[in-house]
Amino acid sequence: MKLTFLGAARFVTGSQYLLEAGGLRILIDCGLAQGQDEKICGTDFPFDPLSIDYVILTHAHIDHSGRIPQLVKEGFKGSIITTSATSMLCSIMLLDSASIQESESEWMNRKRERKGEAPIEPLYTKDDAYKALELFSETEYGKLLTLNENVRVKFIDAGHLLGSSEVEFFVSEGGKEKKIVFSGDIGNLDQPIINNPEYIKNSDVVVMESTYGDRCHEKKATDDIYNRAKVLAKIVDDTFKRNGRVIIPSFAVGRTQELLYLFKIINDKKYIDRPIPVYLDSPLSIKATSVFKSCTAENYFDKDAMELINRGENPFEFPLLHKVKDVQESIKLNSIKESIVIISSSGMCEGGRIKHHLKHGLYKKENTILFVGYQANGTLGRSIVDGAKHVTIFGEQVEVHAQIQSLPGLSGHADHDGLIKWISSFKTKPEKIFISHGDRNVAPAFARELVEKYNLKAYAPHLGESFDLDDIIPYQEKEAYIDENDRILNESRELLAQGLEKVDEVINRLNDAARKADREDKKTCIRLANAINRLSSDLDDLAAKWNSD
């Protein structure tokens, strides 16, 4: 039995694990890396897609599913097994992702044409996404599936997103059976709408996420759904008192539906004694909300949501909710004078209509930009959250004068204590715990805590590392077993990640200095221009060198 970490290894995005066991080659998740993770991980598969027998998909988020169309494009012909809710969400999310890939390719090719360079293909197209969707096979929680005579698999509720799953593998090899558990993304406790994560009692091997392995969510004001709604209501009310608007970058699937649910509570409970016009400006969010509605008969929703549904109420509808479908209507939002709330995608501000709203709203001090989800390194959202004084949107520099806030407690991921609770639920200690889906500092630190504080055998793999699951090596000894070439490669990847952060920091500092420089101070302006030109020239030289190599 062999397990290889092909993504989300000391990174948060791009989940992808290859399990070779029982005569099968099984890919667990096939996600798209985002932000700086994409620059480091690349987009080439280190295996022949035709050699993969199954894809087991834990949930629909693009950082777990987003490369499935590419896999199919490059030859995969097996089955993609997941829950029915995940399958339905992927039917809209993968097509949307394909549309983005096509648009980005067209934009890049226009630039390449002007430079006399050859065009590039999109990572995949809508046709590839349609072909991928034909390979989906649906299952439900708790059902034991037989993949072949040696491998069985079962999905249980991860409590992270509609249809999200933890996956249990039961593998027979050489007369022995081994149980292998993949946590997927472990849900936060008491999330709106969906159930809490289920807990597993035993496993020989565990692959576990660690997104928030270094922190706990703020809980005082957000212990339950109604307190969360009150916090959101206060942010909206304070902004409206300044005659501003609230702009919310939100993930189209999961987080947007939670927000709609919170706004329904605010309206029903009358937490604000003024009208609250909410504009949902994301075609994907609108489609995803329809999927949520269609799953109300399934065992996906928590007790509070089901009480609303059983009373004949829609958890995602309330007065003054406007669904913006076409581009012209979206553009008109920028000319509305009264205070409004805009919910738009993408959640990390890397694409979609949210960038237009930020361009028109960031520079106004009366506005609030409200973040409601994780912002990966290297994304526009992360720059804003980290306090950038100005950002570049569509090639233009935009000053940041709006209030930047985050809504506490609204997270789809378990925090540190939630992760500890999940791993502590195992009645017998696993032989080995692999910590993934955490950044280069968080994942190894969380693994070390499990070793030192809880006496567990835990390790945070590097990208590309493989393990023989019949020969588990304890954490303390593992570092000595890494091949020297692999060690150099892993260290180089980590240095690259640090270097990219430094480049971003230098560029931001130079831009900030340029904005502050007195236009009459020609000497300072010349020095800044020379510094920027030197940096640009050095980066061009490096790019040319590595492209030629």
Automatic annotation (TrEMBL):
Coiled coil feature spans: 478-523
CDD domains: TTHA0252-CPSF-like_MBL-fold (cd16295)
Domain Metallo-beta-lactamase: 13-230
PANTHER family on file: CLEAVAGE AND POLYADENYLATION SPECIFICITY FACTOR FAMILY MEMBER, INTEGRATOR COMPLEX SUBUNIT 11
Keyword match Hydrolase: yes
GO molecular function (one): hydrolase activity
Provenance organism: Bullifex porci
Source organism, top-level taxon: Bacteria
Annotated transmembrane regions: none
Ranges of residues in domain Beta-Casp: 256-384
The protein's name in its UniProt record: MBL fold metallo-hydrolase
Keyword list, A-Z: Coiled coil, Hydrolase
